[in-house]
Amino acid sequence: MKILIVKLSALGDVVQTLPSLTLLKKVFPDSEVDWVVDERNAEILDKHPYINKLLIFSNNNFHFFKRFKNFLKNLRTERYDAVIDYQGLLKSGIITGLSKAKYKIGFSNHREGSPFFYNIKLPPYDKNLHAVRRYILLTKNVIEILGKSENLKSSEEIPDPIFPSDILNKNLEFIRKPYIVFVPSARWETKWWPYFCWEGLIELCKDIAQKFDIFITGGPSNTELKYWAEEQKRKYPYVYSLVGKLSLKELAILIKNSKAVVSVDTGPMHIASAFKKPTIALFGPTSPERTGPWAGKFKVLKSSLSCSPCFKKKCENQICMSKILPEEVKKALNELLYFE
């Protein structure tokens, strides 16, 4: 049995697809599962015990003929029993359509015309269904199509995701005491919790700093975040900036070994959920019912504004996130740290 997963991005979406990979391997233990992933997120899947081969995709593939030709050659070398489009966008639809597979499968209400490229269009999914459960629903449909429906449990249990062994079995050498991870940034600027709110939370954490350090994380591209985090490091002896200093696997290791995570709606929050770490998730423009934490102990804090969630990437006032008070977050953090 050969199966191809098409899930390119973003990081959180890739992590949320891992339970589906686990389910596929439980039902088809002898199968070979390949995965098409965006080069920005490939590291998190590298050397995964359930993945036979990674097919690395970049947006540049469509713009440079030689790169696209090489990607297409790698894609069409294999003849798959099923290709599963978990992404549901035009780009993933094209990749699915160009593959050599008996079954090319996705939901009929996937976006950007991607269903045009499927030869099996599943009934529309509920758009308010959590992403992890949506991917599991898609996976169960594929398993039925491949003739193994008797292996499916009737329960709605989500299988535990698996990570590569170099994530599971490694520690970061610079860590000296228990710590909490703060994740202030996301790809959408509307998801950010304002800096003054984070500063208020850091100030409130003076008491728990006797037991826990605070690590601020973020990608290398945002110089403003990096400067702000370094300022917090200089101001507070229990704060350390790791902005732009970690690989994806190192970030996963950091989260795995943490005592708690405070995060906006972004990829590291989903890594925390996958590891069942105590998590405070801060939501404004997006819906925690669709993309919130799904495992372990967590607390979702969100605005009560009527316009939330709006799913907008840009907003003139962005007040929904600033309505979440540092005192609320600190209270929730205390509950997770001391009353779990």
Structure description:
This protein has 340 residues and is an alpha/beta fold. It folds into 2 domains: 161 residues, Glycogen Phosphorylase B (Rossmann fold), CATH 3.40.50.2000; 172 residues, Rossmann fold. Helix content is 36%, strand content 18%. It has 13 helices and 12 strands. The strands form 2 sheets. A 6-stranded parallel sheet has the order 3-2-1-4-5-6, sandwiched between helices. It has a 6-stranded parallel sheet with strand order 9-8-7-10-11-12, with helices on both faces. The longest helix has 17 residues. It is globular. The termini are far apart.
Using brief descriptors, characterize the structure shown.
single chain, 340 residues, alpha/beta, Rossmann fold, 6-stranded parallel beta sheet, 18% strand, globular
Reconstruct the topology from this structure:
Blueprint: E1 2-6, H1 11-27, E2 32-38, E3 53-57, H2 60-63, H3 65-77, E4 79-85, H4 90-98, E5 100-107, E6 120-122, H5 131-145, H6 165-168, E7 179-183, H7 195-204, E8 213-216, H8 223-235, E9 239-241, H9 248-256, E10 260-264, H10 267-274, E11 279-283, H11 288-291, E12 298-302, H12 319-322, H13 326-338
Parallel strand pairs: 1-2, 1-4, 2-3, 4-5, 5-6, 7-8, 7-10, 8-9, 10-11, 11-12
Helix pairs in contact: 1-5, 1-10, 7-13
| Strand segment count | 12
Instruction: Tally the helices.
Output: 13
CATH superfamily membership of the largest domain:
Glycogen Phosphorylase B
Secondary-structure-derived class? alpha/beta
Q: How many separate domains?
A: 2
Q: What CATH architecture of the largest domain would you give?
A: 3-Layer(aba) Sandwich
Rounded to the nearest angstrom, the distance between the terminal CA atoms is 43 Å
Shape: globular
Strand content: 15-25%
Which fold name corresponds to the CATH topology of the largest domain? Answer: Rossmann fold
Order of helices and strands: EHEEHHEHEEHHEHEHEHEHEHEHH
Radius of gyration using CA atoms only: 21 Å
Unreliable spans: none
Overall pLDDT score: 93
Percent helix among the residues?
25-40%
